[in-house]
Amino acid sequence: MGIAAVIFDLDGVLIDSEGLWNTARRDVALNNGGRWSSDAQGEMMGMSSTEWSAYMHDELAVVTTPSRHRVQGIAAARTTAGAVVNFL
Questions:
Q1: Best CATH choice for the domain 18-82 from the list 1.10.1060, 1.10.150, 1.20.58, 1.10.8
Q2: Model's pTM, two decimal places?
Q3: Which residues contact 62 (CB under 8 A, 6 or more apart)?
Q4: From CA 4, how far away is CA 25, in angstroms rounded?
Q5: Hey, where are the domains in the chain?
Q6: 38: phi then psi, degrees, rounded to nearest 5
Q7: How does pLDDT run across 21-76, given as a tens digit for each residue?
């Protein structure tokens, strides 16, 4: 029996995804009434999408709901990555 599925966590093991997520989250913050600080990326590094979306709402004053800007952030990361990364 062959391999049925493979799941990779985008934590920099296979590709350097931190820059992609930084760009996506910054764009979501600035496009939704929030602000961006120089330490925001470092603060969110290693957080789950639920954690970073709450951080963006609470600390960066993003006006949309955490669940909404989490969806926007993932969509922006997908667009930025293009054909390099497939999100399931």
A1: 1.10.150
A2: 0.74
A3: 28, 29, 32, 33, 34, 56, 69
A4: 32
A5: 18-82
A6: -65, -20
A7: 888 899 999 999 999 998 999 999 888 888 999 999 999 999 988 888 788 888 88
Residue bearing the bigger pLDDT, 61 or 87: 61
1 is written with which tokens? 């029996």
How far is it, in rounded angstroms, from Cα 36 to Cα 28?
10
Q: Which two three-digit tokens encode residue 24?
A: 């996506």
User: For position 78, what pLDDT does the model report?
Assistant: 75
On whether the CB atoms of residues 24 and 76 are closer than 8 A, the answer is: yes
